[in-house]
């Protein structure tokens, strides 16, 4: 296989890893945000919950930024086309997301009850909405998106944004994503908090995990009947990245199952995902929050790889001009760009993982309400 | 081919400018304050004197209030290239995305991970380890600026990429050219030291407020002196690097430098005056009420006494043949997309360097189609396109001047402040202290004018010489823009209100409030306030 084709596949895999990291790390913080008003009944408890992720949320959020940055750098055409066809959804995601950094920093800096209660609502919105949209985006992409390209490479939209908002399958995916995020957030709260937060978090996390598992099964059955996208002619994986030429694509009911039919070993992925969700719920029920946290990572890994392998090589198929569907082959950066980025990522990702782990190590241990309310540096 | 909606393009530009200028109210303080915090903490670690720890913690708290909005509004910038400038992202993303992704990997991750430890790690880390964390935050935020400005330099002086007719976009070809783009190097230093000026003025101004009230005198006098010295050095650097940038624009972006100087006709070295003030008239293409200083312009821009600076009329004339050639390039490119024939490719290659100028003619071509201009109309289209190569002269001219005048004011203020502070005559100079206090927002204003000069002066291009701005926008409708603009205005208004409220609150409270508690560790206690039930 040509080097360019290998680089494209590697970057598709990197994107998958970033999506898993995003789901786990950002999902955890947003799960805590969603649960804040429910696990904390008074101001001290809520501050405790916030300060559990206080030292880490900003670093975790970079998974999100980096996910966007990697799409921009490695799949520039996908980045431009997906962000602008989903304009209303993406801007809603943005608005809900950018409230969060401000909420963390500002909530506990004034004593007014109205001030704090308002920011607590902001945490609910900025935890629930982004994770819902994150999941719903996968649902919409699985169903295909209406767009085509003009000769200059400019995209044109063929579908109203309402169809992305009111899409039942996408809503299912969105709720599943929220379920996993509540699960992960709850597991983190159990790791670092004592009762009463501990037992409340446990209850919600178990609920989140069970909802996610149920929706994952229903979604899996649903996909059997969804029209999927398949290549109808051989394609050159090392082709120049240009969506205008070189592919012929058809929409076929159950098309997303073709890769699973061709490689039955892929069935392990959804099984791992589902297994992690159920085992995770059992672990949290038994009070083993560390194992529960890591199983949450496994659940995200199983889910994202299942979707990725079902769609491969499609990234964002077009329902109105299927031949122009954006795939791993036709929407990447140049060979040189992908190579450069891979070197940079190879150097920095291990560094990032080591200092992130160090930060968690430094801040390890239970967070106590008494310490939080007496520390002028806490949120 | 669908038509370009000029209103959508204008609103997209307006939204981007609004959100970028807003983001950049908070960034300069972050860039500078992190290093000032590191400096204060260094003194604390070396001398072990509590007052320097108090300084680092107090200014650190104000830093945090500012930092949160800087982070939040930065996310907007990353989204907007995709949501609003999809054609730009497709056309230039191969090159532009790389520095942005590196920024995330190398800088932003480091800054964001360690900022948590900087706030939360005081009691969990040794003094040395915490100091290292603070330096890593400073390094991270400044490296972040480096990569963003490398990306920005690519827009202003695209080096290290070439246009590829197979993929219809600029292909990245040289990492070294991307990173060592001279514009990027000069801009990084210019912009980050402008941030240091902002931070120095912030610390100096608030310290002046305490000195005026006679509060926290020791604390304020030390902070003031540190800030004044930091400020004078930074101001000298900002002016020096500004001069380097001017010289670079003279070589690479002649339209920008001509617009900055309001130079309609090619200069007459060495006598050409530097225009101090004028009313540039973009419609009539001339200046009204010009006031100039003779002999200054030529050495100022060219660093010689004999090199001419090309005027805007002459630049328009020079663009004529390029637009004509560019129209041929675009037509050949479109044919090549269908035929993939060698003849069309050869024809395109012959005119490739002018392709951007051909695209610029889109708005004046019949039916907005550059590839099908009747032969007898080409001259008209070229003539109509020529004035489009110039940026808005009034805006570029005045934003540059306001930035320069402000920087001279900072130079004077920091110089006098540093002198009086070292002579310990500060508290008697109440007028100076008041001026310091009222000057707090001015460096931020100056950086905003600098940004306008650089980016309004880059027009009509997003990728200088290659992709016109009006072709770069996403092809969606007006309703989308109305939706997002209303949201931004509402959200950003709430942000600034909350930010100013807390900033004033904590600045007024002063350092005592902050440092009292750690000195007297009372028995950990949860008060009734913390236990009050919250409405659920």
Question: Distance between termini of chain B?
Answer: 55 Å
In N-to-C order, the SSE pattern of chain B is: HHHHEEHHHHEEHHHHHHHHEEHHH
| Share in helix of chain B | over 70%
Greatest contact between two chains: A-B, 96 and 98 residues
Strand line-up in the sheet with most strands of chain B? 1-2
Helical segment count of chain A? 14
Question: How many structural domains does the protein architecture of chain A include?
Answer: 1
The count of domains of chain B is: 2
**What integer is the average pLDDT of chain A?**
90
By DSSP, the count of extended strands of chain A is 6
Shape of chain A: globular
Could you tell me the radius of gyration of chain A in angstroms? 21 Å
Low-pLDDT stretches of chain B are 514-524
Approximately how much beta-strand content do the residues of chain A carry? 5-15%
User: In terms of per-residue confidence, which ranges of chain A show pLDDT below 50 for 5 or more consecutive residues?
Assistant: none
Query: SSE order of chain A in H/E notation?
Result: HHHHHHEEHHHEEHHHEEHH
SSE inventory with pairings:
The complex is a heterodimer of chains A (379) and B (536).
Chain A (H helix, E strand, L loop, with lengths): L2 H37 L3 H11 L3 H18 L1 H10 L1 H20 L6 H31 L3 E3 L5 E3 L4 H4 L2 H25 L4 H29 L1 E5 L17 E5 L4 H5 L5 H18 L3 H23 L2 E3 L9 E2 L7 H28 L6 H6 L5
Antiparallel strand pairs in A: 1-2, 3-4, 5-6
Chain B lengths: L5 H42 L2 H35 L1 H35 L6 H30 L4 E4 L4 E4 L2 H5 L2 H32 L3 H36 L1 H7 L13 E8 L4 E8 L3 H6 L9 H28 L2 H10 L3 H6 L17 H8 L7 H30 L7 H9 L3 H15 L4 E3 L3 E2 H4 L5 H42 L8 H4 L5
Antiparallel strand pairs in B: 1-2, 3-4, 5-6
Helix pairs in contact in B: 1-2, 1-4, 1-6, 1-16, 1-18, 2-3, 2-18, 3-4, 4-6, 6-7, 6-15, 6-16, 7-8, 7-14, 10-11, 10-13, 14-16
